[in-house]
Amino acid sequence: MTEPSDDPAGLANGLARLLRPSSVAIVGASDDPTSIGGAPVAMLERFGYRGQVHLVSKTRRTIGSRRCVASIDELPDGVDAAVLAIPRPGLLDAIEAAGRRHVGGAVVFASGYGEVGQDGQLAERELAEAARRHNLALAGPNCLGFVNFLDRAPLTFAHIVPNHAPLRRGIAVIAQSGALSMALSYAALAQHTFVTHAISTGNEAVLGIEDYLSVILEDEGTAAVALLVEQIRQPARFVALARAAAERSMLVCVLHTGRSARGRRASLTHTGALAGDQAVVRAALGREGVVFIDSLDGLIDVAGAFARSGAPRARGLGFMTDSGAAKTHAIDLAHELGVTLAELSAPTSERLCAELPPFATAENPVDITAMGLNDPSLYARVADTLLSDPAVGTLMIAAMPGSDLQGAEQIGALAPVLASADKPVIYTIMGGDWPLPAANVALLHDAGVLLLRSLERGVHVASALARIGERRDRRAPRDAADTLTVAPARVYHEAPAKALLGQLGLRVPTGRVVTSSDEAVAVASELGLPVVLKVSAPGLLHKSEVGGVVVVEHGARLAEAYASVLARVGAARADLSIEGVLVESMAPPGVEMIIGARRDPAFGPYLVIGAGGLWTEQLGDRAVLMADADEDEIVEALRSLRVFAQLSGLRDNKPSDLGALMDTIARLGALMRATTAVGEVEVNPLLVLPEGEGTLVLDALIIGADVAVPGAPSG
Question: Which of 6, 58, 252, 686 has CA atoms 20 to 30 A from the CA of 707?
Fold first, then answer.
């Protein structure tokens, strides 16, 4: 829901009080620490919460050493945060009472609201309206609450332990799932990653992810935010917050669930949140520095690694191991994930030659061989050598478990070097969950190193860190050379669409629409054979499927081809109003691409590029980018496509004109930004000619913003 408050400043003040309370009331308090009303009381005791605690219970006079009052109306005025651990039927009255007592914010655990259907949605709306009338910052409903580890304020019924003392800045965990907000926090704590906040947002009747993120942005102790998202309800605000986070060098990592159609349906029944278009969300937020992670492990791994050391200054990965097979596997993984292995400088190679045994190879990745067992200091000397190379942005160490003593000697030698490193270090000890000595693990944690038990997870983290480190200032968006006049209530099929795109500076084949076979012969004579005949009819979006396209190589066949193409289309689509036949010059060989443009109601205009022509549906080779994408973003999108290998020139074929392709993409993006009258554009195929020869629009469709056309481009 999360609609704007009538008094946003008042609600923001309530949220600040809720998340950092100096006083807390537990409504529905119990002396049973395993119950919904008793767990928050026990958690406040366990954490050593230093603020005032007030208990509300209709049945108890005291709980432990604390006095209880019978109703919210008996609370002192101005309590910062209230935990409403009561069933749904009494919640609306409780919100009204909390508002009368000027409570800053409230946590609602109860479910049975927007996630269960229309009745629940109505009840949730009533709850939200009551909270907004009183500027009450309402967390939930259907949430687990939150834990502010910094201020020792656990307003949750989940069992979680207090945090360890931080050595560096930490991470905040925010999730629309209550259970996973705590599970992710446990995962971070197990890695000795300091957690500043663990927040479950639930149904977001009043407070949404954007509200919590706005508060976390002001927290100097938080270096990264790990977000588990099912729906982004305030896209424009989220984009602005992501931009602000990047300006503060705070990393925002997102795991966006609902990537599949079935997953989107599941998210709707879970929190009442409908997941948005994944590709568009990633394109819009990725350009603001948001890093998308596709696994729960990776979400915590990457956020934790960033919190320890920040982003690497160089792209290259330095890799060292004591296993030849691990070295080979790392090379394979790096290739698959697009990780650049650092090219070591000559001085670094010389140092490695001096350090390594004669039978080892002084190259990256470095295999120090089994000699590290005899001389544990070899680990430290090689690590120090790699860390000193400017091309190494991140160092990853993959070690075998060995005996407890061997591990202690190895880690003991490495720890001083790693503790002084000013670059991210990922330490993987293989062997699955085979237990490690606590003392050895503590040495690595005290050195500020991310310890993982999986080589694969380590390389994924290195890949993500490299992408983060590649952030650079975005160039100013390109503007359209001309603003086209487009009727928002009209569909422009091929011929008129090409005419408009020609005004935009895009090349189109020479030709024109004719209405008789004699005209077709005359135009073909002017153009020269071979020519292409295409039926021109509004509403005919896929001409080839109904036999509406034919290539004519001999003049004697023109009249026959003209008549037959009209007959085939007329038989297949009697509903069409055929304007004539478009006669065009035959296009030269090239690579067929598709460029589509659409408007997302949340994030605005975006582009879809991929393999075109007959391969569009079969390959599904697509990339999405925003309409104001700069040159770097367009290059990155093109490189992600399988068709890029063909564009780059296969075997003896010349490379395609990538510069012209990029210019065409930028011009269509500029068109979408220049006028809101355009709803959709599809250029398919766009022929990309060999280098230096440009591009050619072979077919196109432009749909006005106010038109809904069955079978229109799907993007």
Answer: 686
